């Protein structure tokens, strides 16, 4: 299971801790406080109380009605009505005079925006909330800023920052609820950092803390992390037993994201242990969840499991359909991960710019005071003012230069693959489409190479992901050696690369492909302790056969690549268009898919 597998569950779970009981001033206020108290431990009672509060809201004061709106937003978040939650919570943040209500509304916007993949808004409102933290009198509510920050840092894969937040919160002796969620954040961060976990101290004590206050969501999230940890250290049977035993508890929380993540782990582990029937049952249960996001990692895992089960069963049409859905979901999920990191970097840049603006305003205010004093002094003071203006101009020039450099860095992050330094899928496509348009005008031939590393999953599984990353970087290195200046080279998938060769016909492209294939086969993974060979299957296509449409070229190159895989892998194949009636040696894309599925 990937490191981000449980993060959506953790983020949804954090919603249960955004609100905090308000002071009880009236009978209606007492009902509000009671609803706040049971919102995470007793969902059914919370729903009943909220319905009563809505019926009796005519007797509420204005502050109590604002509190009711916050609780209604919380219920909408549980039910997945994220747009309504964000809109009303932002309105509450803008309108409410109470610092605590503004603080809680900002935290709710931060959580729901992150769940809804509006990452930049989530980070902005987290900053708004943290800016109000000192104005909040309730220590438990103040701690929630650290809780949400830690949860979001886990969500964005910045586990060191999440671990710092959790340790800081735990050192402040928080109340039982905040201690429970802080320990859950800590366990998630430790696992994300691939550090050793002390099961007694880090896991079982945390489970006992959450069980004592009947907080089912963090309790089951910790269990899921423990199961994922066990599976990573070879205790897959033990992980399955834990997940099967706790699935009813996870289902009882009513959080579909938590249930989906638990089932996705069960589907994957059952399949790896050889129980295809149970794996298929859990995968179908995930697919049947209403209103799920196509990019949700649990959906990606479910689609992959259904594809593999259909393949084992020999049901080729079903396998084809599941593989198509899996490939689309997986690519969407990878794009989402990149968008999340881009939003995080952009948010940090905005914070830095804000701090720079504050410092600049301070400098400007100081300059105004000096100008008033200079007006009463002689020429020496005038010279001093000129010197200060020069310093200020230099500061402005420096910060302008630094801002432009940061912008260039962010643009590069958005266009390149962070692991290999190659163009990412989106940037490669944009460059290729521009090259194809120019080539069509000038009658240049263009060829496209699409290659996929053979048995790359075995390298990851048997030699570790660090070795897999090394192999990907080596493939990028040797690929650059065979990609002349002016041509395009990008990583467009997990282990999938592509080249666009400009002013290059198919015969020359095949020579380049063969040279690249040999270079990749010459990569010696023994230098990093892996005895498995490295090779690639490469498909070639040219505009002389397939025209100048990027999608058509990629599709034909993909068909040729799969032909190379069916033919034994570690080879180069040229795309062959179908002949009339499908006779002769023609190669059709539909035939390619069927043969691949039969051979895998």
Automatic annotation (TrEMBL):
Q: Which PANTHER family match?
A: DIGUANYLATE CYCLASE DGCM-RELATED, REGULATORY COMPONENTS OF SENSORY TRANSDUCTION SYSTEM
Q: Which GO terms describe its molecular function?
A: diguanylate cyclase activity
Which keywords does UniProt give here? Answer: Membrane, Nucleotidyltransferase, Signal, Transferase, Transmembrane, Transmembrane helix
Stored CDD domains: GGDEF (cd01949)
What is this protein's record name?
diguanylate cyclase
* Signal peptide range in chain numbering: 1-25
Which EC number(s) does the record attach to this protein? 2.7.7.65
Q: Which residues cross the membrane?
A: 380-401
Q: Which Gene3D superfamilies match?
A: 3.30.70.270, Tetratricopeptide repeat domain
Q: Key word Translocase present in the record?
A: no
**Highest rank taxon of the organism:** Bacteria
Q: Give the lineage.
A: Bacteria, Pseudomonadati, Pseudomonadota, Gammaproteobacteria, Lysobacterales
Q: Which reactions fall under this protein's catalytic activity? A: 2 GTP = 3',3'-c-di-GMP + 2 diphosphate
Domain GGDEF stretches: 444-577
């Amino acid at each position: 299971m990937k490191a981000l597998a449980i993060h959506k569950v953790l983020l949804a779970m954090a919603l249960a801790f955004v609100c905090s009981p308000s002071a009880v001033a009236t009978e209606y206020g007492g009902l509000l406080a009671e609803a706040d108290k049971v919102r995470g431990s007793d969902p059914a009672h919370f729903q009943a109380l909220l319905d009563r509060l809505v019926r009796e809201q005519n007797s509420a004061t204005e502050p109590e009605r604002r509190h009711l709106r916050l609780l209604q937003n919380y219920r909408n978040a549980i039910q997945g009505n994220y747009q309504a939650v964000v809109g009303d919570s932002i309105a509450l943040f803008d309108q409410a005079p109470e610092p605590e209500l503004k603080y809680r509304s900002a935290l709710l916007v931060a959580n729901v925006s992150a769940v809804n993949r509006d990452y930049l808004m989530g980070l902005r409102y987290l900053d708004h909330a943290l800016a109000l933290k000192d104005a909040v009198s309730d220590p438990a509510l103040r701690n929630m800023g650290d809780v949400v920050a830690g949860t979001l840092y886990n969500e964005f894969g910045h586990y060191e920052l999440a671990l710092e937040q959790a340790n800081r919160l735990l050192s402040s002796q928080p109340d039982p609820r905040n201690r429970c969620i802080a320990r859950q954040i800590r366990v998630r961060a430790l696992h994300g950092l691939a550090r050793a976990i002390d099961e007694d101290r880090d896991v079982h004590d945390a489970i006992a803390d959450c069980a004592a206050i009947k907080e089912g969501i963090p309790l089951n999230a910790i269990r899921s992390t423990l199961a994922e940890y066990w599976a990573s250290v070879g205790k897959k049977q033990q992980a399955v037993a834990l997940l099967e035993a706790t699935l009813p508890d996870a289902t009882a929380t009513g959080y579909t994201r938590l249930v989906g993540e638990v089932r996705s782990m069960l589907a994957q582990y059952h399949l790896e242990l050889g129980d295809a029937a149970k794996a298929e049952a859990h995968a179908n249960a995930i697919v049947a969840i209403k209103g799920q996001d196509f990019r949700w990692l649990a959906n990606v895992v479910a689609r992959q499991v259904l594809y593999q089960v259909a393949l084992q069963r020999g049901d080729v049409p079903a396998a084809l359909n599941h593989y198509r859905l899996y490939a689309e979901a997986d690519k969407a999920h990878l794009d989402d991960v990149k968008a999340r990191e881009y939003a995080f970097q952009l948010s940090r840049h905005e914070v830095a710019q804000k701090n720079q603006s504050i410092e600049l305003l301070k400098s400007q205010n100081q300059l105004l005071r000096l100008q008033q004093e200079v007006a009463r002094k002689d020429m020496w003071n005038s010279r001093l003012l000129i010197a200060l203006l020069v310093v200020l101009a230099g500061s402005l020039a420096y910060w302008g230069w630094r801002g432009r450099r940061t912008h260039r860095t962010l643009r590069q992050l958005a266009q390149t693959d962070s692991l290999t330094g190659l163009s990412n899928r989106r940037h490669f496509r944009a460059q290729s489409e521009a090259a194809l348009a120019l080539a069509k005008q000038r009658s240049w031939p263009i060829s496209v190479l699409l290659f996929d590393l053979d048995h790359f999953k075995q390298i990851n599984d048997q030699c570790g992901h660090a070795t897999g990353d090394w192999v990907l970087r080596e493939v990028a290195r040797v690929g650059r050696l065979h990609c002349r200046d002016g041509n395009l080279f990008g990583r467009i998938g997990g282990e999938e690369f592509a080249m666009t060769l400009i002013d290059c016909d198919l015969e020359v492209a095949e020579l380049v492909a063969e040279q690249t294939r040999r270079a990749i086969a010459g990569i010696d993974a023994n230098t990093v302790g892996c005895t498995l060979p490295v090779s690639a299957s490469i498909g070639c296509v040219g505009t002389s056969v397939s025209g100048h449409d990027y999608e058509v070229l990629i599709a034909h190159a993909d068909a040729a690549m799969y032909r190379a895989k069916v033919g034994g892998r570690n080879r180069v194949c040229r795309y062959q268009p179908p002949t009339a009636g499908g006779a002769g040696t023609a190669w059709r894309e539909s035939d390619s898919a069927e043969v691949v599925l039969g051979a895998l």
